[in-house]
From TrEMBL:
Comp. bias intervals (Basic and acidic residues): 74-87
Lineage: Eukaryota, Metazoa, Ecdysozoa, Arthropoda, Hexapoda
UniProt protein name: sulfite oxidase
Cofactor(s) for this UniProt protein: Mo-molybdopterin
Xref: Gene3D superfamilies: 2.60.40.650, Cytochrome b5-like heme/steroid binding domain, Oxidoreductase, molybdopterin-binding domain
C-alpha cells in the first residue's frame, strides 16, 4: 500500500476535523470531482493527522542564523554538521504501512524525509504536550516547513538520536514548502535575520539609537507563521460576546470611534535570550538585544469598542479578551492569545486597535491592515492581522498562550514544567542594552572617558528614571543622560523606550574594559547583576546587566 493511500485510510478511520491549507501536492481539487466541500473536508481531516507533529516553536534554540533557502548551516570547528533525514544504507527499510502501526504511546514512530524515528521515549518531555500523538506513524515534515526554525543543528541532532531506519522509496512524499512562502513581503537587507521561515529578524543596534521612533522598515520582525495577505477594503473585525458575534466592523466603521495615537515600544519576551543561554542552554530564538523597537501607533482604543459592544466594565473578574489573528499554522489553527478583561478596559492601559505605524498604514510584517497594540506587555500579546476579539471566561486555549510565554524559575526543567499552571506574562521587567560601542569593538578614550549609547525600557507603563554605567566592575558608576518621549506621561502610562548617552571613565592605562549598564524604573526596580538567578528554560525576561568587552584606543 502506498504512503498516500495509507494516510487517507488512517484519516477515514479516525475521522479527524481540523482546518488545513493545501500543503500536499499529490492530491488536487480535481481528484474530488470538483467538489469544494468534499475537498475541504479532506484537507481538514489530513491536517489533524499531522497536528502537533513536531517540537513546537517554544522547544527551539536557534543559535545559528538560518539561511533563507534552508541550506546547510556553515560548519564550524566546534560542531559537526548534521542533516536530518538523509538516507542511511546502514539501517533497515520500512514500508509506510508498518510505520503506521506504531501509533501508540508504547510505540510511537514518525517520519522525516528518508528517516524513520522511534520517539517513544521522547513523548513525556515534548513541549507541545499531547498534540504530538496525532502524528503517530506519519511525517513531521509539513509542520517543519511552517515552523522553519526547527531546522537547526540542535533539533536535527535530537531527532537523529532516535533514528531507526529509512522509509521505502515507493512511499516517499514530496512535502515542498514553496507555496507557503511564495508571497512573503520584501524585507530590508539591513535587518539581522535569525530565522527565514518564519521570518524573524533583529534591528541592528546602530539603528536602534539612530531614531527615537524606529523606521517601519527597520522595526524588528517576529513571526510565528507565514504572513497572511489581507485587503484593508474588505477586512472585517468580529467581536464575540457570550459565544455570539455581536458586531462586525470594517476599518471604515472603526474610524467612527475617537482616534488615538501612542508612542510605544514593543519587545519580544525573549529579547537578549542569547546572553542567558551562555549561563545554561535555553530553548528559543537566539535574540541578542535587537528584539525591541519603538513606534507611534494610531487607531482606536480597544476599550471604546468593547464598551460599544455592551461589555460591562464592572464585571471583569475572571474574564479575558481573546485576540485572534489571521495567520495560521499547517493545520489551519489561527494564532491567538489573550489578556485579562480588566487590562483591556483600564483607561491607562491604552490598548489600541492600530491601523497605522509612524503615520503610515501598517506594513504587512507588522499586521496590516489591523493589529492590537498592548503597550507594556510582551509583544506576543499585540496580535497582528487581527480579525476576531472574544470576551470569554476562559483564557485563549492556543499553544502560544497555554504552553508558552509563561514564567518559570531556575529550578524548573522541561520535564517538570507545568505550563498551564504557571503565570502568563502580561508585563515586562526593566532592561537596558549598550548599542555603541559594539561588543568586541573599539572605543576612543578622550579625557579619560569613552562614549556609550543605548536604550532602556520597562513594561507595565513604568518609566525609566535612571541608567548607570560602570567600566570597573561596579566599583564606580556614571549616570547617563536620558532621551524620552516628550513631557512625562501620567503615572503607570509610560510606554515608549528611553534612549541614553553617557561619558564613562575608564581605568588609567587599561587596554580593554568590560562595560556594564543597568537601568532603574519608576517602580524603583533595578536590573539584576547576573543571569544565574533569573535563568529559565525558555530564556524569557532576560534582563540582567548588559555587559560588553571594549578595546580602548588612545
Amino acid at each position: 500500500m502506498s504512503y498516500r493511500n495509507l494516510v487517507q485510510r488512517i484519516i477515514l478511520r479516525q475521522k479527524f476535523s481540523t482546518n488545513f491549507p493545501a500543503l500536499l501536492q499529490y492530491n488536487g481539487y480535481e481528484k474530488y470531482g470538483g467538489s469544494k466541500e468534499t475537498f475541504n473536508n479532506y484537507k481538514r481531516n489530513f491536517a489533524a493527522a499531522l497536528l502537533g507533529s513536531v517540537l513546537i516553536g517554544s522547544s527551539l534554540n536557534d543559535n545559528n542564523k538560518q539561511k533563507s533557502n534552508g541550506s546547510k548551516q556553515q560548519k564550524t570547528e566546534e560542531q559537526e554538521i548534521v542533516e536530518a533525514g538523509e538516507k542511511r544504507p546502514d539501517l533497515p527499510t520500512f514500508r509506510a504501512e508498518e510505520i503506521s502501526q506504531h501509533n501508540k504511546k508504547s510505540s510511537f514512530w514518525v517520519i522525516y524525509r528518508h528517516g524513520v524515528y522511534d520517539i517513544t521515549s521522547f513523548l513525556p518531555s515534548h513541549p507541545g504536550g499531547e498534540q504530538i500523538y496525532n502524528a503517530a506513524g506519519l511525517s513531521i515534515e509539513p509542520f517543519w516547513n511552517v515552523y522553519g526554525m526547527h531546522k537547526t543543528q540542535q533539533v536535527y541532532k535530537l531527532l537523529e538520536s532516535y533514528r531507526i531506519g529509512n522509509i521505502h522509496e515507493d512511499d516517499m512524499v514530496d512535502h515542498s514548502d514553496d507555496e507557503l512562502w511564495a508571497r512573503e513581503p520584501y524585507r530590508d537587507p539591513r535587518l539581522i535575520v535569525k530565522t527565514a521561515k518564519p521570518f524573524n529578524a533583529e534591528i541592528p543596534p546602530q539603528y536602534q539609537i539612530a531614531h527615537f521612533n524606529t523606521p517601519n522598515e527597520l522595526f524588528y520582525v517576529r513571526q510565528h507563521m507565514p504572513v497572511p495577505e489581507l485587503e484593508a477594503a474588505t477586512h472585517r473585525l468580529r467581536v464575540v460576546l457570550d459565544g455570539f458575534a455581536v458586531e462586525s466592523f470594517s476599518l471604515e466603521q472603526l474610524r467612527r470611534f475617537d482616534s488615538a495615537s501612542l508612542s510605544a515600544a514593543l519587545m519580544c519576551a525573549g529579547n537578549r535570550r542569547s546572553e542567558m543561554d551562555q549561563v545554561k542552554p535555553v530553548k528559543g530564538i537566539s535574540w541578542a538585544g535587537g528584539a525591541i523597537s519603538n513606534a507611534v501607533w494610531s487607531g482606536v482604543y480597544l476599550r471604546d469598542v468593547l464598551l460599544h459592544c455592551g461589555v460591562d466594565p464592572n464585571d471583569t473578574d475572571g474574564k479575558h479578551v481573546i485576540l485572534t489573528g489571521a495567520d495560521a499554522d499547517a493545520a489551519g489553527t489561527q494564532f491567538s492569545t489573550s489578556i485579562p478583561l480588566r487590562m483591556a478596559l483600564e483607561p491607562s492601559a491604552r490598548v489600541l486597535l492600530a491601523t497605522h505605524m509612524n503615520g503610515a498604514p501598517l506594513p504587512p510584517d507588522h499586521g496590516a491592515p489591523l493589529r492590537a497594540v498592548v503597550p507594556g506587555a510582551p509583544a506576543v500579546r499585540s496580535v497582528k492581522w487581527l480579525e476576531c476579539i472574544t470576551v470569554s471566561e476562559e483564557e485563549s486555549d492556543s499553544h502560544w498562550h497555554k504552553r508558552d510565554y509563561r514564567s518559570f524559575g531556575p529550578s524548573v526543567t522541561w520535564e517538570t514544567a507545568d505550563f498551564e499552571s504557571a503565570p502568563p506574562l502580561y508585563s515586562l521587567p526593566v532592561t537596558s542594552a549598550i548599542c555603541e560601542p559594539a561588543h568586541g569593538g573599539d572605543a576612543l578614550v578622550r579625557d579619560g572617558c569613552i562614549q556609550a549609547r543605548g536604550y532602556a525600557y520597562s513594561g507595565g507603563g513604568a518609566g525609566v528614571v535612571r541608567v548607570e554605567l560602570s567600566a570597573d566592575g561596579g566599583a564606580s558608576w556614571r549616570e547617563a543622560a536620558l532621551r524620552q518621549d516628550g513631557p512625562a506621561p501620567a503615572a503607570h502610562a509610560h510606554y515608549a523606550w528611553t534612549l541614553w548617552a553617557a561619558s564613562v571613565p575608564v581605568p588609567h592605562g587599561a587596554s580593554q574594559v568590560e562595560l556594564w549598564v543597568k537601568a532603574t524604573d519608576s517602580n524603583f526596580n533595578t536590573q539584576p547583576e547576573t543571569f544565574q538567578h533569573i535563568w529559565n528554560i525558555r530564556g524569557l525576561l532576560s534582563n540582567a546587566y548588559h555587559k560588553i568587552t571594549v578595546n580602548l584606543k588612545r
